Amino acid sequence: MATTLIPAFAGMTQFVAAQNAHDLKRVHLLISDSRDFLWIGPGFVVRTRQAVLDRFVELFRSRLRVAPDWRTLQIVMLDVSTAGIFVRATITADADSQSMDINEVLAHTPRGWRVMTIVMRAPRNARSS
Fold first, then answer.
1. End-to-end CA distance of the chain
2. Using an 8 Å Cβ cutoff, are 104 and 74 in contact?
């Protein structure tokens, strides 16, 4: 991995670790407080930092686990302080488990890398026609 991509990758892994630890305080620190924040997933759209935190409170009531398949990782630097990241992951909440394609945009801020956008969808080969 090119050294310019490593900090963005570290931001992504910190976000995954915070979710798996059910660490709401850490998730809060890693989510951008931009009014342009957007999280789109199957059946929902979240547009503010507070709404994201409310969603995680709900998710943390289950045994949420995000297991990225790092072999599918792709990082594209959109400019010197913005990275587009793709990874396929298995997301488990209690007994329900599903494969998801996750696209995130992270921005480098004075406080480190922050998640600006999350788009999750079922992988193309897993969706019915």
1. 36
2. no
Question: What's the pTM value of the predicted model, to 2 decimals?
Answer: 0.90
| Helix, strand or coil, per DSSP, at residue 37 | coil
Distance CA 27, CA 58 (A): 13
Q: Is the distance from CB of 14 to CB of 30 less than 8 angstroms?
A: yes
The one-letter amino acid at 45: V
Angstrom distance (rounded) from CA 63 to CA 13: 19
Q: In the structure encoding, which two tokens stand for residue 76, read together? A: 């594209």
Q: What percent of the chain has pLDDT over 90?
A: 80
Tokens of 70: 């790092």
Amino acid at 21: A
Residues 61 and 77: beta-carbon distance below 8 Å: no
> What is the average pLDDT value for the chain, to the nearest integer?
91
Using the 8-state DSSP alphabet, how is residue 110 labeled?
Answer: T
Phi, psi of 75 (to 5 degrees): -125, 130
Largest CA distance in the chain: 45
